[in-house]
Amino acid sequence: MLVDVLVLLGGLALVILGAEWLVDGASSIARKAGLSEFLIGMTIVGIGTSMPELVVSLTGALKGNADIAIGNVVGSNIFNVLMILGVTALISPIAITRENKRRDIPLNILATVLLICFGMQHTLFGVGGSDTINALEGGVFLILFAAYMYLSFKTGNVGDEKEEESEKESTKDRSVFVAVLMVIAGLAGLVFGGDVFVDSACRIALEAGLSDKFVAITILAGGTSMPELVTCVVAAAKNKGALALGNIIGSNISNILLILGASALACPLTFANMKVVDLGVITLSSVMLLVSAWTGRDNKISRWDGASYLLIFAAYMAYLLLTI
C-alpha cells in the first residue's frame, strides 16, 4: 500500500510538470499562429489531455468491460465541469465568448443528449433490443467529431478577441519549434503521469473492496481527468481562462464523440449499469455551463458559479458513496 501511495504521488508530480509545459507551449503556438487560445485549448490541449480516457475506455471495450468504458466517460465529463471548472473558477473567473455561447457549449449539450439517446434508446423510446451504443452509432459519433473539428478550425482565426487580449500579452515569446517541443513533452508527461496515477489509485481502491462501477465513475474518472484538472488550474493561475474553458469543452466533446465512438467500433457498449441519477448529473453539468453563459452581466463563469458546481459535485459523490 505504501509503495502504491508513493507511486501515486510521483505520477501526480509528473502530471503537474507536464501541465506547466503544455499550457506555456500551447499559448505560444496560439499567439504565433493567430489562433484563439480557446481553440488551442479545445483541440491540442483538450484532445491531448483526453488520451488517458481514450486508453482506459478503449482497453475496457476490447476486454468486453463496458462498465469501465461508459463509466469512465460519464464520470470524467461530470468531473471536468463540476469539479475542474468549479475549482478553476474559484481561482479566477473564466470569460465566456459569444462563440462559446452560440456554438461550443450547445454542441457539448448536444453530444451529451446523443450519448443518452443512443445508449438508452430502448428505455427512452421503446425501440431496439438493448440499451447499447453499437458500431453504427459509434461511426456517427466519429463523423460528428470530425465535422466539429473542421468547423472549429475553419472559424478559429479569432486571436483578436477582447476576452483574450490580456492573456496573449502575458504569453512569453518562444519560437514555434520550442513551443511544439513543450507541447509534446507536456502531453507525454500528462499521459504517462496520469497512467501511473490511475494504476496506483485503482490498486488502492480495489484493495479496499470497491466495485468496478464505483472505481470507474469516481477514482478512475477522476484520475484520468487529472491532466485536465492540473492543466486548468495552471491555466487559471497564468490568467489563461480561455485555454482552460477550451480544454474542458474540447475534452468533454472528445470523450463522447471520439472516445466512445472509437470504443463502440471495437465492441458494443452497454448502459445496463448506468442509473438515471448518473445520466441526470452529466446532463445537468453540461446545461449548467449554458446557464452560466447566459446569466449575469460579465459573461463569465464566476466564483459563485464555481462554488455551486462544487456543491453539486460533492452531493453526487455523497450519493455514490451511499449507494455502493
Q: On the 0-100 scale, what is the average pLDDT? A: 78
The share of residues in helices is over 70%
Uncertain residue segments: 158-171
Main beta-sheet annotation: 2 strands, antiparallel
Distance between the termini: 22 Å
Strand order of the largest sheet: 1-4
Helix/strand class: mainly alpha
Textual characterization of the structure:
By secondary structure, the protein is an all-alpha fold. 80% of the residues lie in helices and 2% in strands. It has 14 helices and 4 strands. The chain has helices at residues 2-33, 37-49, 51-62, 66-91, 98-119, 121-125, 135-154, 162-169, 176-207, 212-224, 226-237, 241-266, 276-294, 303-322; strands spanning 94-95, 132-133, 269-270, 300-301. Strands 1-4 form a two-stranded antiparallel sheet. Strands 2-3 form a two-stranded antiparallel ribbon. α1 packs antiparallel against α9 (176-207) and α5 packs parallel to α12. The two termini are 22 Å apart. Mean pLDDT is 78; it is low at 158-171.
Layout of helices and strands:
Elements: H1 2-33, H2 37-49, H3 51-62, H4 66-91, E1 94-95, H5 98-119, H6 121-125, E2 132-133, H7 135-154, H8 162-169, H9 176-207, H10 212-224, H11 226-237, H12 241-266, E3 269-270, H13 276-294, E4 300-301, H14 303-322
Antiparallel strand pairs: 1-4, 2-3
Helix pairs in contact: 1-2, 1-9, 1-11, 2-9, 2-12, 3-4, 3-12, 4-10, 4-11, 4-12, 4-13, 4-14, 5-12, 5-13, 7-12, 9-10, 11-12
